Amino acid sequence: MGEQWAFYFDANKCIGCHACTVACKNQNDLDPESATWRRVVQSGQGEFPDYEEISVSISCMHCEDPPCETVCPTGAIEKRDSDGIVTVNRDKCIGCHYCAWSCPYGAPKFDGDNKMQKCHMCLGKGAGEGYGSPAKKHEDDGGEKPACVDTCVGGALKAGPMDELTKEATEDAVNRATKRKGNVIIETGGPTVTFESESD
């Protein structure tokens, strides 16, 4: 397999504005009232007045060994060899929902046509195509960015090769920990998303 592409999410920079969710729906022509491929959830701890809350942006994790691909009886779900992005061929999907039941992150979504759809890192326009040209091209950097990353006002979301993102996340974490004299947790593993958050 080629370079594994991934998302990097820094909870310290997320302001919970949901711009990523709106950009995803807009880019992929999703009905505002229907399936959401990227969502922002709030997680809190403590009690007033010491209550703290963070926002976390979540989509398909493009897992190293995707359970949705394993359980799909028609082979509609595929992890691409070129970049590790998990895609769905809606023409092969029979709407059995096995993928939704197997995914621990709630990524597979179904709409009126009962065909699975999910994040494909903006590989192609249209709900769930997952194939074709990148949806966003930026002349200034020569690369492609998913709509959610392009729209993130706080710079909390990034996308790219996993090795590069992990290196950048580690450098950011060390810099932040040095400035604040705190501990920063970098989580990597099966899902190809790196989350950064502070810990006491």
TrEMBL record:
- This protein's record includes keyword Lyase: no
Q: Which InterPro entries match?
A: 4Fe4S_Fe-S-bd, 4Fe4S_Fe_S_CS, ET_IronSulfur_Cluster-Binding
| Superkingdom of origin organism | Archaea
The record's Pfam families line, in alphabetical order, gives: Fer4_11 (PF13247), Fer4_2 (PF12797)
UniProt keywords (A-Z) are:
4Fe-4S, Electron transport, Iron, Iron-sulfur, Metal-binding, Repeat, Transport
State the Gene Ontology terms under molecular function. Answer: 4 iron, 4 sulfur cluster binding; metal ion binding; oxidoreductase activity
Q: Where in this chain does the record put each 4Fe-4S ferredoxin-type domain? A: 5-35, 50-82, 84-113
Q: What is this protein called?
A: Anaerobic dimethyl sulfoxide reductase subunit B (DMSO reductase iron-sulfur subunit)
Q: Which organism is it from?
A: Halodesulfurarchaeum formicicum
